[in-house]
Amino acid sequence: NAGVMQNPRHLVRRRGQEARLRCSPMKGHSHVYWYRQLPEEGLKFMVYLQKENIIDESGMPKERFSAEFPKEGPSILRIQQVVRGDSAAYFCASSPRTGGNEKLFFGSGTQLSVL
Amino acid sequence: DQQVKQNSPSLSVQEGRISILNCDYTNSMFDYFLWYKKYPAEGPTFLISISSIKDKNEDGRFTVFLNKSAKHLSLHIVPSQPGDSAVYFCAASVVGDNDMRFGAGTRLTVKP
Asked: Fewest C-beta atoms under 10 Å: which of A92, B12, B62, B78?
C-alpha cells in the first residue's frame, strides 16, 4: 500500500517561471493538505482540498499560488512567476477524513529552489 | 502568528537516558495534540497523540504529557536510542477544524 507520493523530489526554477508540484494521496484517502516549510521554521498550513473542491485555502498566499485536486489524477500545487522567497520544502499530506483529530500521512516533500 | 512554539531548536542526549521535548501553545481552543518525527529527506511521520480530555498517553518508549492550565505538552522518550535522532514537531488542532498548527521543530541527537 503505497504512501503519499510527491513529485518531483527536487525542483529548480528561475525567477518568473512556473512551478508545479504533484501529490498523490494514499489509497482510500480523499483529503489532501499542502504545507510549506521555510528554513528554520515549522510546517505552515497552506490549503486543504477534497476531490474537486477547495475546502480551506486560508494559508495560501493571495497571489501566484493555486491548488487543485481533480476528480482524476493527483493534487497539484501551482506557483506562478516564482520568486526567491518561494524556495522551501512543500509537503503534501492526506487523511481518510477530516475532523481535527485525524493524523496526517505526509509525503517526502518537494524541495523547490528558485535561482 | 505562532500558536504552537517549540523553544528549543536542538537537544542532545546520551543513549539510554531520557529525552524530554517541550511544546507550548497559545490557543486555548486546541483540543488535540500530536507529535511527528522527521528524518532528513523524508516527510514527517506520526508518532503519538493526546486528546485534551487526557493528561498522559503512553506508547512504548514514548509518553506525551499535557498540562492544559499551562498550555504545555511534552514528549518523553525513555530510554533514548541513536535511531531516535530526528526532528520532532509538535502539532495542535481543533476537532472539526482543517488547520493543524505545527511548531518549528526540535532536532534531537542521541549520542551512543
From this structure: B12
Cell 505545527 belongs to residue: B102
**Residues from chain A contacting residue B100 (CB–CB below 8 Å):** 33, 45, 100, 104
Longest CA pairwise span in chain B (Å): 43
Does residue A99 carry a pLDDT above 60? no
Minimal CA–CA distance to A54: which of A66, A42, A43, A44?
A66
Among B100, B95, B111, B80, residue whose Cα is nearest residue B4: B100
Render pLDDT for A19-38 as a digit per residue (tens, 0 to 9). Answer: 999 999 998 888 899 999 98
Nearest alpha carbon to residue B7 among B26, B28, B29, B22: B22
How does pLDDT run across B68-99, given as a tens digit for each residue? 999 999 999 999 999 999 999 999 988 777 67
Collect all residues with Cβ–Cβ distance below 8 Å to A60 and sequence separation of at least 6.
A46, A47, A66, A67
What is the band of B1 on the pLDDT scale with cuts at 50, 70, 90?
Answer: low
| Pairing mode, strands B101-102 and B106-111 | unpaired
Q: Which of B34, B95, B99 sits opposite A45 (nearest CB)?
A: B99
CA B101 to centroid of chain Cα atoms: 12
Q: Chain B, 46-65: which have a CB under 8 Å from a chain A CB?
A: 46, 49, 51
CA nearest neighbour of A85 among A15, A29, A20: A15
Q: Are strands A31-37 and A53-56 parallel, antiparallel or unpaired?
A: unpaired
